[in-house]
Amino acid sequence: MKPPRLNSQYIPLVATGVVLAVLYVTGGCLFPNFFSLRVLVNLFGGNAVLGVAAIGATFVILSGGIDLSVGAVIGFTSILIATLVEEHHVAPLLAISLALLLGTGFGAGMGALIQRFELPPFLVTLAGMFLARGLAFVVRPDNLGIHHPFYAEGINHSLALQLDSRVSWPFAATCFVALFLVALVLAHYTRLGRNIYALGGDETSARLMGLPVARTKIATYTIGGFCSALAGVVYTFTTQNGDPAACVGKELEAIAAVVIGGTLLSGGVGFVAGTGMGVLILGLIQTLITYQNLNSWWTVIVVGLLLLLFILLQNVVSALSGRLDNTARHG
To answer: Is 230 in contact with 72 (CB distance < 8 Å)?
Structure first.
């Protein structure tokens, strides 16, 4: 009896889990307080903005697309909320709702342009990046602190979960985890999720199968726009601040987290769980470098090397998968 063979599409996901475990155990062995509750909470809270943005990027990349507007939308959302709350005295929940609505519509608009005119996602979302960043500076050219009681008391105290006498679970981390669970269900247990995978696997085949390609593509970028706007909301939670220049390059970090999580840039293969682990891996690398008192640029270097490693792994897995398929057909 032959032993069960691991499906090739799970190999990058397993590799991501192994890297995450090795980094975490290594940190615990090198530093006595690394396994503390505070470090674990900071790992989730400190990477909540990236995590929310990366979840949206996962759906876009799974569909075979790309979104370069993520960081700009975060900056626009944050400064819009801050300006509405502080200068126009709009209720925070109303300001947040408006920002989410605009971000979602922005993503839907880019998706409609990509689908209707068959434009390259790279160019459309690049234009979206410039547009969103420009609008952010039009709203306000510099950063603005948010001092409303909803932020000062509600987000920091009422909505935070007290884990012990010294450590509390921030509401930003709750947003990240909640969105992660919703995304898991959406990607793997709904018709929309299956359509996104099919679209990323082969758009022509998906169209021939009668799947709603146009609707799915627009829905994918709508999800991406919503997640980018939500990341901007979470940014205001973590910083109590709005900044039109915030999160420059955050879209590249999100893409890195998605790829390190095992999602193919060509689309059709990947897991939301892998993205979650990819975000935590980036956070662990930054934490370890901080513990070592090294220059923060080492984080960029290590992430770049790790990204190259996972891209090579994906290529190897794809090649092996193709060989196995050919062997099965002719064997």
So the answer is: no
